[in-house]
Amino acid sequence: MQVTYFFRKQTHGFHSIETLFSAIRNALPESVSHKAHFVRFKSAMPFAVLLNGILARFAGGEINHITGDINYLALFLNPKRTVLTIHDIEILKRSKGLKKFIIKLFWFEIPIKKAKYVTVISEFTKRELLNEIKTDSSKIIVIPNCLTIHTKPFNYLFNSLKPNILQIGTKPNKNIETLIAALENIPCKLTIIGKLSEKQVQLLVNTNIEYENLSNLSSSEIINAYQHTDLVSFISTYEGFGLPILEANVVGRPVLASNTAAIPEVAGNSALYVNPHDVNSVRNGIKRLIENPAEREQIIKNGFINIQRFSPQIIANQYIALYETIVKESVA
Fold this sequence. Notes:
The protein has 332 residues and is an alpha/beta fold. It has helices at 16-26, 46-59, 90-93, 97-114, 123-132, 176-183, 198-206, 219-227, 243-251, 263-267, 279-291, 293-306, 312-331, and strands at residues 2-7, 33-38, 63-66, 82-86, 117-120, 140-142, 164-168, 189-193, 210-214, 231-234, 255-258, 272-274. The protein has two domains: 2-146 and 311-331, 3-Layer(aba) Sandwich (Rossmann fold); 164-310, 3-Layer(aba) Sandwich (Rossmann fold), CATH 3.40.50.2000. Helix content is 43%, strand content 16%. The strands form two sheets. The chain has a six-stranded parallel beta sheet with strand order 2-1-3-4-5-6, with helices on both faces. A six-stranded parallel beta sheet has the order 9-8-7-10-11-12, sandwiched between helices. α1 (16-26) crosses α13 and α9 (243-251) packs across α12.
């Protein structure tokens, strides 16, 4: 079997999809040959889309797998042998007017219709997608993301007097403003990975929270951040998956998580859940983790069990099963 993985143009600071499928490809058996094809143009202008599509058609393999963001490539590839992965529909939900019409038509409706199967990374994303797009639900297959960092549990003495709290991401859905408000008057250090806006910096200054802001980290630097934190905050208002939960699980850190979107589906019983829209709920959750060592230890133990569901080998096997189904159906 030969699989061609289609990726968006390589761009500094945007590599989550590439990292994910690198881990999956590395877990494929030798019987599956595979190659990567990166589109030439980042632009979504008609000429760039057309040229990207033509070049993709020549790069097609026995199985074509569009890994995300460049959904429109499905218009140019063999419909009987194409898999499209959709990570979330956040861009569709926040778009309006003509822009939403174009995105919905060319990034979702037509590509979904053209692809043989569409994989989504959570049951939540599947429900969201089916609420927006009319299609046969049987062609939408849930295959979760896998863990992409390579590390082991790291022993670290919890600092209950002044814990280091790790926050991954600063985009609006990451809900950092609520976290900042919740942390006011709680002795702690907040480590934030991702570029802060001026408004977010001002909020941190106004609440007098000690913080460290890091960005553009390597994989080893991200692992180091997890290893030297006391707890991980992941109180997003919207997530199609939630990889930081798994990263905290594997390192052995307690997680404070939202009770919404795909997060409970991913975390299971390896997190303490709070209402991400309620500052008091978030504050009480943070205090509870700081003050209850037995509960922290149980969450950590549950995390070690939870992470087993998301190994690269297990997820790669799910994709292989789908590829084999496509090959069988294409010759039937």
